[in-house]
Amino acid sequence: MESALPSVTRPMGAVTTGRLPNQPVQYCPGTTTDYSG
Length: 37
Known about the structure:
By secondary structure, this protein is mostly helical. It has helices at residues 4-18, 22-36.
């Protein structure tokens, strides 16, 4: 799980520069809920 966190943080950073910070922030929790569900 820990290894997945930093992996997602890397690409997320690039997305944050291209799009609003609110968009990627919502995607982060959304992906975790999808995996859990």
